[in-house]
Amino acid sequence: MQLLLIAxxxxxxxxxxxxxxxxxxxxxxGLCAACHGETGMAQIPGxxxxxxxxxxxxxxxxxEYRDGTRNVPLMRAAIxxxxxxxxxxxxxxxxxxxxQPQAHAQP
Length: 107
Hints:
There is one protein chain. By secondary structure, this protein is an all-alpha fold. Helix content is 56%, strand content 0%. It is built from five helices and no strands. The chain has helices spanning 2-20, 29-36, 55-67, 73-79, 84-96. This is Cytochrome C.
């Protein structure tokens, strides 16, 4: 019983520390979240999950969508004129999210 209490106390103390590691929620998250979800888990078929992706990959992909290097009109329109700082906030947010298991549809 004592071990169980110690473990519970340890988890209680660790939870705020884990939450403190998340970057602040980006102001520009709304439009991204419509397809990719606020926590990076896709909300619509065909949209990739972004939770837990590498920061450098997300940052580069967002830059390429913004600059037109990746020619995906939907993404270019969605990202719009985003600053480097806003782009970095979005990449940091999604890379810090923990991927969640997907629910599988029953046939």
